[in-house]
Amino acid sequence: MLTIGNIPLKNKVILAPMSGVSDLPFRRIALRYGVGLVVSEMVASEALCTGHPESLMRAEGEGIDPHIAQLAGKDPHWMGEGARMAEKAGADVIDINMGCPAKKVTSGYSGSALMKDLDHAMTLVEATLEAVSVPVTLKMRLGWDETSINAPELAKRAVDAGVQMITVHGRTRSQFYKGKADWRAIRQVRDVVPDVPLVANGDCCKFEDADEMLAQSGADLVMVGRGAYGRPWVPGRIAHYLETGERLADPHGEELAALVVEHYDAMLEQYGFEIGVRAFRKHMGWYLEAAGRLDDAPQGFMRGLMTSLDADLVRNTLYDWFVQVPMRSAA
């Protein structure tokens, strides 16, 4: 059985940490549909330590077992303090982000920018390891660009220091999300860290993707990110497929309608009405797109739903719209 330290892994699929997406409501739904692990949104370590409200909310893990808090930063002091604070608040695992390609993150010398200076990157790893007693994991890209593919070196150094799981997105930072993830390139990391779980990330959206990712990368697990937009059940469906070979269908009809309404209510509870309705807007679009109903939506449909002050009206409208979705293949 695969483990992160002494924490057993339920299956071979992890929901990726995604800023603005994998918040507490989304993670809870994904877990209910059977994904093995979920990871919090990226939390800035210094902001967490200084009590920034959004960072505190992102680090929450009530009802999540095990709770993995992902931290980002550029300063060893704040990474250590942030990790210590997250562990005290209930995190079972601390994940270090060295993969985020967003300019606002890399311009502050965090995320995947750290792959330009592995010595500095390792000071953050070591500070985090020294600060906590729970397992520490690390997520990265292949490198900063095609001329500096250094994921194998960073992974080896991190595991030698004590990191207990490695996740690699099969693109460089310079690629952002363009082109196709290079799953074969992840095998170079497998070759140098054979004794800890390795997770392949990038472009896993359907059943066959998971098979190919595992075969090409040599990884133990796959991580599903954008493939879960509007389909929080997909990571769990892929996990079930990898275990049994069975391709479960998407939720449809009453099940899908109830799920969308539940997600809406959970967002309002998490953020309050004004922020919650705005935060749910993107999920609404993704649900419509995944259900094949985006083009059917009348002009102003989403705007009217997302700006309505009548929550009961929104619930009833969402239910009536999605209950009509027929059964179809999940991936």
The gist of it:
This protein has 14 helices and 11 strands. With 331 residues, the protein is α/β, with parallel strands linked by helices. It is globular.
Low-confidence stretches: none
How helical, in percent, are the residues?
Answer: 40-55%
Distance between the termini: 27 Å
Task: Write down the overall mean pLDDT.
Answer: 94
Gyration radius, rounded: 20 Å
How many helical elements?
Answer: 14
- Number of E-state strands: 11
Task: Report the biggest beta sheet as strand number plus sense, adding barrel if it closes.
Answer: 9 strands, parallel
Defining traits:
alpha/beta, two-stranded antiparallel sheet, 331 residues
How would you sum up this structure, described in words?
With 331 residues, the protein is an alpha/beta fold. The protein is 44% helix and 12% strand. It contains 14 helices and eleven strands. Strands 4-3-11-10-9-8-7-6-5 form a nine-stranded parallel sheet. The protein has a two-stranded antiparallel sheet with strand order 1-2. Strand 6 (68-72), helix 4 (76-88) and strand 7 form a beta-alpha-beta unit. The two termini are 27 Å apart.
